[in-house]
Amino acid sequence: MHPLVNQFSKLDIFKKLKLSEIEELIEKNLMIIREFEKDVLIKSRGEKIDEVMILLHGRVRTEMTEIDGKIIRIEDMAAPSILALGATFSKDSKIPVDIITEKKSTIAYIQKEKIFDLCVENKDFLKELIIYLGTKFNFISQKLWFITLNNLKDKILFYLHEKIKNENENENVIILDYSIEQLSHLFGVTRPALSRAFSRLESEGIIKKEGNKVYILDKKYFQKKFVGSL
Which pTM value belongs to this model? Predict the structure, then answer.
């Protein structure tokens, strides 16, 4: 079996395919495999895309640059992941963000016509594809709402609230996936400003931060703060 088959099978939209079908995609040259070094711009905002990109190994980030030069970090994605699927199947098929490698990465390119063929041949594949697109739409909607928050305190609280909701609502401790430096890029602020904001939340008795762990001291505050906003 081809060593990349397992990576594909971990992705929700490919889970409904037989391993032999995935292997056929690889061995019949129905996709192109490319490797990229760290900090390489894979696709730039506004660039046309006619294929589905699958991140097989490595990690990438997506970001947008505003007119004033401010960079907004949209998402960090680790392999295996599907990149810019919504853009591929949009009317103008243009990438809305810059996609940049965070580490050495391997990406597979599959022509979207082949994806259409798989949708026709396999109803379950089509179903998973639609579910994926819907989930991604919800993520972007949440991200847009997050960006509109002008208050850094609210951004931190919303980020922590999402972590609680997505991981374990019964837990009062959150393990941060990113360093303060990385989070500052995600929030679009400086590192010192973010550190001060965390310190203010601690002084208010809402959280306690120790390294990459954040203890929720006032969980009712979170529930009240974001009720009806998600």
Answer: 0.66
